């Protein structure tokens, strides 16, 4: 049986693990966190990605976990409402189509549960070295003993270790979008009822939306800066930067900054895309954000990850043991779609202006899925 190591247990990693196991591969997933990573924003599953969930028999479960947002408001610095929208929300929810808006960690839990008991998980660990031996890949870990695998799949996100070890430094593949965002869980202190509130300050954005049937909320703090470079692992520096940036812009920022310091799932990073001319090298392949991050600003990152995982596993299976052919066909089947989705993020979108809905959905539906 062909053995595959998947690095990363978020959307792309759990999805590709599921499909590889379904196709008869022996799959191990290594994840730096001590379990499926909590937190993250409300994300959207759209178009053909809904078909992937349906083929996983997870669509009905995902429907029951929808955020069920009723709409969104924009307020001024004193909290006075300036406008409201009950047809769509700034986080990407649109109410007149079958899209599913779901919390990122809820979707990951669904995918993780679907892989049980067919997939081995190794938590609290990470890859430190990869060595292509021709007929296998020698993998060293930070904690576990070294092991050999037939194939390795990097599903470890924007700052992928597998990509760095196989293709080189991250910087050469990164398209920066000049925007930084923090997301974290807070109490529903505004007593929101399936609702989102946004406030645009002089130099920053703050937002709060209710989650999990109003029992909690998620907060977003964001700002634009073309020159800033801040380590995504340096939480103390991130706290300091956010406090400096948010200080003068009012609304509920003081409360959010207090909650930020004790949030169990604080996340901060630069919005960026990963642009590569190939996602496979030898016995190593990339999937999801590791190979072709579209960024949350595209509104398509989760859907593209689900689709990429499905197609990669399907093309490997269809190649009947010829992994090089499978990798080649994966790129050929998916590259144009990835490029179209990355182009959804224009300078206007990064600055806050949405792409026309008809144009957006033409891109969403511009791929036809094989039934592997």
UniProtKB/TrEMBL annotation:
Superkingdom of this protein's organism: Bacteria
MF (Gene Ontology): FAD binding
Domain FAD-binding: 2-319
Gene3D superfamilies: D-Amino Acid Oxidase, subunit A, domain 2 (3.30.9.10), FAD/NAD(P)-binding domain (3.50.50.60)
PANTHER family: MONOOXYGENASE (PTHR46865:SF2), OXIDOREDUCTASE-RELATED (PTHR46865)
Annotated protein name in UniProt: FAD-binding domain-containing protein
Organism listed in the record: Mycobacterium fragae
């Amino acid at each position: 049986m062909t053995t595959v190591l998947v690095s990363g247990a978020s959307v792309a990693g759990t999805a590709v693990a599921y499909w590889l196991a379904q196709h008869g591969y022996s799959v191990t997933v290594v994840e730096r966190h001590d379990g499926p990573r909590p937190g993250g924003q409300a994300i959207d599953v759209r178009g053909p990605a809904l078909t992937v969930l349906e083929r996983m028999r997870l669509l009905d479960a995902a429907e029951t976990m929808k955020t069920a947002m009723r709409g969104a408001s924009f307020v001024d610095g004193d909290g006075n409402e300036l406008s409201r929208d009950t047809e769509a929300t700034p986080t990407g929810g649109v109410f007149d189509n079958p899209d599913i808006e779901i919390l990122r960690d809820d979707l990951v839990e669904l995918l993780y549960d679907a892989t049980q008991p067919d997939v081995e998980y190794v938590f609290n660990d990470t890859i430190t070295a990869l060595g292509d031996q021709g007929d296998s890949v020698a993998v060293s870990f930070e904690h576990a003993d070294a092991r050999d695998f037939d194939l390795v799949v990097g599903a470890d996100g924007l700052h992928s270790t597998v990509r760095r070890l196989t293709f080189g430094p991250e910087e050469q593949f990164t398209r920066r979008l000049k925007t930084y965002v923090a997301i974290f869980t807070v109490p529903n202190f505004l007593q929101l009822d399936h609702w989102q509130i946004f406030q645009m300050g002089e130099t920053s954005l703050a937002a709060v939306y209710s989650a999990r049937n109003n029992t909690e909320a998620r907060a977003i703090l964001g700002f634009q800066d073309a020159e800033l470079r801040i380590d995504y692992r340096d939480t103390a520096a991130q706290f300091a930067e956010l406090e400096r940036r948010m200080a003068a812009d009012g609304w509920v920022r003081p409360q959010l900054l207090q909650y930020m310091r004790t949030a169990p799932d604080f996340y901060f990073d630069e919005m960026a895309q990963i642009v590569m001319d190939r996602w496979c090298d030898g016995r190593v392949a990339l999937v999801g954000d590791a190979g072709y991050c579209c960024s949350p600003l595209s509104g398509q990152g989760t859907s593209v990850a689900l689709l990429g995982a499905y197609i990669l596993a399907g093309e490997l299976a269809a190649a009947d043991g010829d992994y090089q052919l499978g990798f080649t066909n994966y790129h050929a089947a998916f590259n144009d779609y990835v490029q179209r989705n990355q182009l959804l993020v224009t300078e206007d979108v990064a600055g806050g202006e949405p792409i026309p809905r008809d144009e957006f959905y033409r891109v969403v539906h511009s791929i036809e899925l094989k039934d592997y």
